[in-house]
């Protein structure tokens, strides 16, 4: 059976663009819908991808895409993802992360498209009640970002009951790293992720990296996180698509390595990779930061055949450093 077209929302963003690259290598036909608020035109090979610039909440545009391209499945990355901003401006997050995708789902229902891969998050769990966290962990998000993702998971479950939509919820832990070839990478404004901020401190773009809290109940007093390489996330999306194409049921899986590393461990690894001393400032804990977040990824391996290949943070940092010191210096054009 010939492969159909894939519609990828947010495909010009960080994780979306890395997944697009992987899917193209697998011979897929891709249409990207991205409003380019946070995405970058230059992150896509426009000779091999159809880019539609616009918003997934625009019903007329979404209908036009479905009528013209007749997608077989939707991979949904598009979302706002700044936790702090979600607390101060919750309606922005509920409109974009919850309300706008309903337009997409209505078009899918009208056109009989019943395969949906959702970029969800470990933030749907809230504060950890046990470590490592598996998919049976209670979902009690502590901020509107996590809540918006959790609510859309519920919507997708209800669509399965009502009209047979099959979804895979991919609950990411801490996405990191860049394309191993250095062609594309992570370029956020503002940049909030730890590894690029550490590397920005290494290049002098930042005066220092601030470590928030050194008195956590962890071996070195700093927060521990499960860092998952963006290429491993891309692999998981491809395998989730295979699962649905084979008639698989809706499922939620964690995407992580199952190993946690502290902020201090990440900084020391970055110093080894870059050969530079990273200037560090120590600050108080940030409200809402749990001491430790680590995935139990066993279900993803059992159901999708997926396992992280890049389990050591050195590989994540090396690929991010390659992007940051490469021709683009870690940045796409300001206009892209």
Automatic annotation (TrEMBL):
<keyword id="KW-0119">Carbohydrate metabolism</keyword>
<dbReference type="Pfam" id="PF01370">
    <property type="entry name" value="Epimerase"/>
</dbReference>
<comment type="subunit">
    <text>Homodimer.</text>
</comment>
<keyword id="KW-0520">NAD</keyword>
<comment type="similarity">
    <text>Belongs to the NAD(P)-dependent epimerase/dehydratase family.</text>
</comment>
<comment type="pathway">
    <text>Carbohydrate metabolism; galactose metabolism.</text>
</comment>
<dbReference type="InterPro" id="IPR005886">
    <property type="entry name" value="UDP_G4E"/>
</dbReference>
<dbReference type="GO" id="GO:0006012">
    <property type="term" value="P:galactose metabolic process"/>
</dbReference>
<feature type="domain" description="NAD-dependent epimerase/dehydratase">
    <location>
        <begin position="7"/>
        <end position="256"/>
    </location>
</feature>
<protein>
    <recommendedName>
        <fullName>UDP-glucose 4-epimerase</fullName>
        <ecNumber>5.1.3.2</ecNumber>
    </recommendedName>
</protein>
<dbReference type="InterPro" id="IPR036291">
    <property type="entry name" value="NAD(P)-bd_dom_sf"/>
</dbReference>
<keyword id="KW-0413">Isomerase</keyword>
<dbReference type="InterPro" id="IPR001509">
    <property type="entry name" value="Epimerase_deHydtase"/>
</dbReference>
<dbReference type="GO" id="GO:0003978">
    <property type="term" value="F:UDP-glucose 4-epimerase activity"/>
</dbReference>
């Amino acid at each position: 059976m010939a492969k159909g077209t894939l519609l990828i929302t947010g495909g010009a963003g960080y994780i979306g663009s890395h997944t697009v690259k992987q899917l193209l290598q697998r011979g897929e036909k891709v249409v990207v819908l991205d409003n380019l608020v946070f995405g970058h035109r230059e992150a896509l090979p426009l000779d091999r991808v159809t880019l539609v610039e616009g918003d997934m909440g625009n019903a007329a545009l979404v209908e036009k895409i479905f009528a013209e391209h007749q997608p077989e499945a939707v991979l949904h990355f598009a979302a706002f993802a700044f936790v702090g901003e979600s607390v101060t401006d919750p309606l922005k997050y509920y409109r974009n992360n919850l309300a706008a995708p309903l337009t997409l789902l209505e078009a899918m229902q009208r056109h009989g498209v019943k395969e949906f891969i959702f970029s969800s998050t470990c933030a749907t769990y809230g504060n950890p009640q046990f470590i490592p966290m598996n998919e049976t962990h209670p979902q009690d998000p502590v901020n509107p970002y996590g809540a918006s993702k959790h609510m859309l998971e519920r919507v997708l479950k209800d669509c399965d009951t009502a009209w047979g939509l099959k979804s895979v919820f991919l609950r990411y832990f801490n996405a990191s790293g860049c394309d191993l070839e250095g062609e594309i990478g992570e370029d956020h404004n503002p940049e909030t992720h730890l590894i690029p901020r550490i590397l920005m401190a290494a290049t002098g773009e930042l005066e220092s990296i601030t470590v928030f809290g050194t008195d956590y109940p962890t071996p070195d007093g700093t927060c521990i996180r499960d860092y998952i390489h963006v290429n491993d996330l891309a692999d998981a999306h491809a395998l989730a698509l295979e699962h649905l194409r084979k008639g698989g049921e809706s499922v939620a899986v964690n995407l992580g390595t199952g190993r946690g590393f502290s902020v201090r461990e990440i900084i020391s690894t970055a110093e080894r990779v870059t050969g530079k001393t990273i200037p560090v400032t120590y600050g108080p804990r940030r409200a809402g930061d749990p001491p430790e977040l680590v995935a139990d990824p066993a279900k993803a391996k059992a159901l999708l055949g997926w396992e992280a290949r890049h389990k050591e943070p050195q590989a994540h940092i090396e690929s991010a450093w390659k992007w940051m010191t490469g021709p683009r210096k870690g940045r796409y054009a300001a206009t892209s």
